[in-house]
Specification:
The protein is an alpha/beta fold and 238 residues long. The chain contains seven helices and ten strands. It has one domain: 3-Layer(aba) Sandwich (Rossmann fold), CATH 3.40.50. Helix content is 33%, strand content 26%. Helix 3 crosses helix 4 and helix 4 packs across helix 5. The chain is globular, with a radius of gyration of 18 Å.
């Protein structure tokens, strides 16, 4: 791994979160899932968030990406203080400027690969014409090595191929940042290695920023930096 520079201008930061708290109050006793977490990512960096189950990794990812609200602190992503945005503005920003890759591929079984990739462009209010959406979706599939599978539905694709379609869908909007939650969790070791090689290639060739939650040491080893968590706190950065 190559560590990021120790210092840099604030404008270098695409994610700048400070004192982030998240409390779940559904049970009899409130659970503080995040305890004043500070977290920053430089533009073009690939960062892994690692730690034991229940340590707050996915909660942090959900809060940083605006999927979940916070109970304290501040989160700035690409210059926007996202926790202060109204629901409509935040939803629009997430659709246009963030990409998501999850352990479950979340592909629509009735659509072809290219149709799945097109969805963020067609429903996100991007103003992209159907013809441009198709062109950009085919380009995204080509970037992940699946140009020859564009017309195939998910059932005709392997797990690794389905996750590549999910990556193409995540990058087709040309987002500022891509969030990935256990993206290799459902893959065999060979497919997982192929997927990480793909993400690294995208990171290095076009400067795409990735924040990846993972349990897998071999995934973390391929990133620029590992942020380790335990009990709702960041304990170290490597």
């Amino acid at each position: 791994m190559t560590a990021p520079e120790a210092a840099g201008a604030p404008s270098d930061l695409i994610v700048d979160a400070s004192g982030v708290r998240k409390i779940y109050r559904g049970g009899e006793v409130p659970v503080e899932a995040l305890r004043r977490v500070d977290f920053a990512v430089r533009r073009g960096e690939m960062v892994a968030i690692m730690g034991p189950s229940g340590c707050g990794k996915t909660t942090l990812l959900n809060c940083l990406s605006g999927i979940d609200s916070i109970d304290g602190g501040a989160i700035v992503v690409d210059g926007l203080t996202i926790h202060t945005l109204d629901d409509k503005t935040l939803t629009r920003y997430r659709a246009r400027s963030m990409g998501f890759v999850f352990q479950a591929y979340n592909l629509l079984s009735v659509l072809s690969a290219v149709e799945n990739v097109e969805l963020p462009l067609l429903v996100g209010g991007s103003g992209v014409t159907p013809a441009d959406a198709r062109r950009r979706s085919l380009d995204a599939l080509d970037a992940v090595g699946l140009a020859d599978r564009a017309s195939h539905r998910p059932a005709r694709l392997s797990g690794g191929q389905q996750q590549r379609v999910a990556v193409a869908r995540a990058i087709v909007t040309r987002p500022a940042i891509v969030w990935a939650d256990e993206p290799t969790g459902n893959l065999d070791s060979e497919s997982a290695a192929d997927l990480m090689a793909l993400l690294r290639r995208l990171n290095q060739s076009v400067g795409q920023t990735f924040v990846i939650v993972t349990h897998a040491a071999e995934v973390g080893e391929q990133t620029d930096r590992i942020v380790r968590m335990r009990d709702g706190n960041v304990t170290s950065t490597e």
